[in-house]
# Entry
Amino acid sequence: MAERSGSGVLSAPAAHAGHAGAHPAPRGFLRRYVFSTDHKVIGLQYLVTAMLMALVGGGLAALIRVQVAWPTLAVVSPETYLSVVTMHGTIMVFFVVSLALVSGFGNFLIPLQIGARDMAYPLLNALSYWTIVPGCLLMLLAFFVEGGAAAAGWTAYPPLSALAEAVPGSGLGQTLWLLAMALFIASFTMGGLNYITTILNCRAKGMTLMRMPLSVWMFFVSAVLGVLAFPPLTAAALMLLGDRHLGTSFFLPGGLVFGEEVLAHEGGTPLLFQHLFWFLGHPEVYVIVLPAVGIAFDVIAAHARRPPFGYRISVWATLLIAFLSMIVWGHHMYVSGMNPLVGEYFSIATVSITAPFSVLGINLIASLWRAKIRFTTAMVFALGIISVIGTGGLGGLYLGTSTSDIYFHDSYFVVGHFHLMIGVVTLMGTFAACYHWFPKMFGRLMDERLGKLHFWLTYVPMMAVFVLMHYQGLSGMLRRYYDHSMYAFQAEGIELARVISYFAFAAIAGQLVFLVNFSWSALRGRKASENPWEATSMEWNTASPAPHGNFADDPVARRGPYEYAPPGSRQDFAPQWTA
Amino acid sequence: MDGLSPARNERAAQTLLFAFLATVVMLFAGFTSAWLIRRTGSDWGRLQLPWLAYANTAVLALSSLTLERGRVAARGEGQAGAWRSLGGTLALGLVFLAGQVGLWRALSQHGAFVTSTPQGAFLFLLSAVHGLHLLGGLVALAWILHRRAAPRGVAVYWHFLGLAWLYVLGLLHLA
# Structure
């Protein structure tokens, strides 16, 4: 259709004004830092918002650890404990990890790395951020309403989530949860659409798809997955709202009794919600894990001074993972009474993801072969990612197979596994990105000594917490229980729970080191040059911090993104932009 | 500062539109799977659609025709005719939405609506979601008319919503 532009008055260019970074540098504090349309400012806004939400999510984690390890203290009531667990999960998955890694670094990095001046639709980008702000506020507001915050788990299974009278948090708290999630989904979808459009249309001259850094590839695949997987959850949320407020029976079966009264619902099935939820829920894992893996590839290449092993294979493996991730949701529901043949299918499909995912893991490890490693903080976090993927992925094999999952389901084995994958891998990816790209954000370097301290206070305690949880699960300890000492078969696990809690407190304290380092370095850190890591990808072809409009001239990509140690060259790297 | 060339802007707009349509397809896919599961419930019956449902469908089809006429006219010399046709689409879109509200009223009078039958609940939800998307299309159309801009993207979106409504209607006919 492009060739028709210019024929007839209807194709006036005015129709497209405002697209594609064609906007002058804004003046005034509000336009520059608050209602900005600059992708870098928006990326930072997401990052800071995620940090603030992480304070809440982390605080809730501490509460959970106190309650589980010292149940007699009863720091929270049983009803509140359910709310605490629910809100910890929701806030961490959607409002911390998704915001920091996908929305934050996605925004910050994509245009810089593909040589664009901004996102394809800067205004849509700003709108996406300003949609998530009321989402965060509504989610937090839920703590202060009658009945408290939502208590149906981060998965919001009906009937707990569908009947306002089910538990205290099922009332207004659950409604606010649904509204906040609706805003999150709207914001995330706007962001995803913008990522896809930008990557496909705004790349610099010479920046072919196979010359994009792997982080951009992973952000792209993550955006496609998000855009395709969230709408069915939206459908489920709308039906849930119908069941809650309009009296429909999509998810509510007949014969439900509340108090003495038989409820009027008839014919619905709660399992339907589970299917729709996990159709999103499983791809969501890859929506947040893949960008962390992409960041690991970028960071390892720059600090190991050699190209990542198997670039093309990694791209194809990622695409295969994305496809498979959309057809395996049933492995979250093996104990829901599904037909064993269906379970068999989901087992085979799930375990087959191991193949392409192992390819990524092996490529990461092989990228260290004969490397000249510079052990910077960014690098040690990236190396940590490889280790956590290996450990966490191993547990996934047992949970992906129906025969073993039936035993492990709802135990701490599950909690340990998914925290390693979608908690530790993604957090370490976010940290690696922070330390590596900090110069482009603030023109300064983060403090390396504090950084190393942060790494050891993150990696060791977090691994201890979640690996030990696997053992608790093996011993039969179940998740979401308020007081395990009340059950003889679980009481023994409380000793271990205390050990885990001490490690968890250390991990939380470690994050305070990061917050101090981040704030101090942003203001007082050592000044960074344009390309302090001697890296090769396009974002280093501009000042530190990157100015509005990103590049002084239109950049041209003349080679791949990882030309380290090129043969016949005096310096050990050949940047993408040099002739 | 240089933005993208008009041709690239056009491509970007197309990518955005088709990616957005993919989300709408997935939304309706979600509803469809819910429909397929829910119809195995014990209380599933047959839904007799009132004539208004078909009248509304005809109005929507007509609106697609006028939009197509406007789109073709806008490419050539017949600019005034183009605006008339697009104005017609806008009016027919509003008539369709009003008709949908009428459909809800008719169904609720016949005791086949939100709480009374599962099909009624699906019809309400699907037509509401479809209507909201159409409302977005109307806003875009009004903006196009105001700016005298090319209606290409809106045309794709509008025809897509026409097909989506036919799909919903087909689903409702599946017992």
